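Let's practice the habit of predicting before peeking. Look at the sequence and jot down your guess about where helices and strands might fall. Then scroll down.
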Amino acid sequence: MEVSRRGRLVTDRPYGSGARIRLPSGHVAEYRITLSTAASEGYAPRRLTVRKIIFYPRLDLGSTGASVLALNEALQRLHIALGAVDSSFGLDTRDAVVAFQKLHGLPRTRSVDARFWRVLAAASAPRARYPGDHIEVSKPSGPVRRPRWPRHLVSHVSTGATGNTPVGRWHVYSKVPGWLPDGMFDSSFFLRGFAIHGYPTVPFYPGSHGCVRVPVWLAPRIYGYDPPGSTIYIY
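Done guessing? Here is the structure:
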């Protein structure tokens, strides 16, 4: 058995029928554990390598490093929208964390703690309520889903503060790229003045005038995913 930490060998020795090895976990680190078996009568030699990352239990806006990278990789596997899968806890990671917290009924703290990691480890990609290619918005929990891989993504949004975002099945009838005078960005209108659009502030609760706000960093992707005539479900 070989065990390395951050690329440096920790132990390399044979074991007969089992082993218990204590590895320090007080700091962020990546362990690689390689198990090898020798050939014997009727059995071929085998080699298996596993990778395990020790995480910082708490991460917040501004955090960096291997733990943040592991967080972003896990969120991406669940189709939570991110600007980039990297080692930086920026605004996109914060919004992705909130989207995950909304989906799983966790407190919307905008940060990651031990409870978050436990739920994340057991989570699976969310499923859409409706079939086909569309966008759907959940007013109670807040996320917007754009099903159909490879463009399946889930994002934090904010709907009407008074509950006035219209529920139902709608279609995009008009699109306006760029900024509008009232601060709307890359707007896709689906009913009168109601639209899905980017906005500089997207509260973690219903706080819009009735539109569906998405983070500005994500708005161009959403805008590109819903051409005129696209279906939007709001419930």
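How did you do? The first strand starts at residue 2 and ends at 5.
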